[in-house]
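Cross-check.
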Amino acid sequence: MTEGLTVESFEGRAGEGFRLTADDAELDLTLVECQRLGGAVLEREPFSIVFLGPQAPVLPQRIYPLEHDELGELEIFLVPIAQDADGTRYEAVFT
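Predicted model, tokenized:
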């Protein structure tokens, strides 16, 4: 669930690991960025987070279950946005 997640949930967590498990894929992702997007604040301030994962497999955009030691189990819509020698980056935008 993402309703209770806010920018404060992820700020200060850069470098922390998240475990993604879906279908045949089990990946370790690292949070590399949390950015406030500004704009109108309705229920929560808009923000985005970016994770870095391995180069392969590149997962298609969809909702994935993620696990974090402190945040617990999350379901987040991830979109692959870039790939380089470091791995594949996935972004989630919360509005």
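Residues 7-10 form the longest helix (4 residues). DSSP finds one helix and six strands in the chain. Passed to J.P. for a second look.
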